[in-house]
Amino acid sequence: MNFRKDNMSPSESHRKPNLVWHFFSSVRLTIVLLIILAIVSIAGTLIPQREEALAFSQHLAPGTLKVFITLDLFDLYHSLWFRLLIGMLALNLIICSINRFPAIWKRISTTPRPDRLKPFQDLPSEQCFVTIVPREKVITSVEQHFRKRYKYFQSRESDGSYFIYGERGRLTHFGFYLIHLSILIIIIGAILGSIFGFEAFVNIQEGETINSATRTDSRGPVPLGFDVRCDSFSVHFYKNGTPKEYRSKLTFLENGKVILNANALVNHPVRFRGITFYQASYGSVAGNRVTLKIRKSATDPKTAPLLKMQLGESSPLPGAKAHFKVDEIRNNFMNMGPAVLIRVQPDQGEPTSFWIFRDQEDIQRRFPGLEKRFRKLNPSAFKPFTFVLDHIETRYYTGLQVNKDPGVFLVWTGCFLMVAGFFVAFFMSHRRIWIRISMEKGGTTVSIAGHSSKNPVGLQRELTQLTRSLEEHVSRKGLKA
Fold this sequence. Notes:
This protein is of the alpha+beta class. It is 35% helix and 35% strand. It folds into 4 domains: 18-104; 111-169 and 429-480, Double Stranded RNA Binding Domain (2-Layer Sandwich); 194-286 and 398-416, Tick-borne Encephalitis virus Glycoprotein, domain 1; 288-394, no CATH class. α3 packs antiparallel against α6 (80-109), α6 (80-109) packs antiparallel against α8 and α7 (135-147) packs across α12 (456-480). Residues 1-13 have low confidence and may be disordered.
């Protein structure tokens, strides 16, 4: 007999499995996704990511480089396909949890009858004892002792025997749900950090204030939403010259108002408005002040006095109808060391500009005749004076790594929940205990049986200890009576 699909009853049609639901409820899918994510994580560790990928990419063939760029392997953890894998795993965990919930709920919500006889079949002798204490007193003593240790207490008289039932650890069946929840929370935290967070860096000179940082993914500056000022920077060295500690004194301002003063040190970051500032590097730049000498001629034997000049400050030139100023300061001009640009403006005539170097004598030895060929590099360009650079004030700058990850709290919450879930799932169990009190020849017999969702060895040890403690408690109460 042939049946057409049109003739199926509504109940039969309703029972037809949903293929998408069936696909995502598969434990095999979970295993496959975890294996793929593990392989991808290994690849992300081996392949340089983001700013570190530039040097690595130069060693790749054009075809291989195109594949890497197409698959976004240089920014793997922010790629669309990686997020899709994470999303599939999250959906898989949710559907698996929903599928298992009815069976779990039935298991924890169903309470077995206290007067079941099957648990007492083939009981070992260490789970029974006989006492001469009257039956009613035994029941009272056992119930009193048993209630302290087990919840969901029930009792019933049946066929001349008194049955007591108790259990604990019902909620341990939700241990794997706690693990699933923790993974979902970690995934949500990671995605939030990936989408709304950033990694950036910034260099701030002493006394300078900034309100943005440069992203490491070359997507331009990112506004911070507040101002950061470096009040000072200090560095201490070991005897061999290795940096021992460097510290940045930072001030955080909003609308010009100081909100926080804090010190950033290596391994001691500063957190403000959800953004973390790590002390990452430091360096020095030319400051705004220089010390120089002015001689009447290059061979003048007289020691000229030291003059302290500030960038852009104009000063009369001694012995001449002219003024001069420092137009520019460089830490390393043309790879020939510290230098400043001098601009001399006579009262009448055109100005003269030229560079003077701190290591002028060394440059003359390395490049003989350089001053004659390039007037711009001649410290005696304005006759008959010779300018000598003695010192350039240097200022430190602090290099800060700037990170924002709004999902980090969720990630840590998920980690703690995962530890708790594993503890519940592997070290705790749902235990059910039955006690039967019956009158037999020679006295009152007490039998103890039990069932555990896991760890049968631990259950057997607990039943033996419970039998001994009940026997002692019954005897002690009976003697007192």
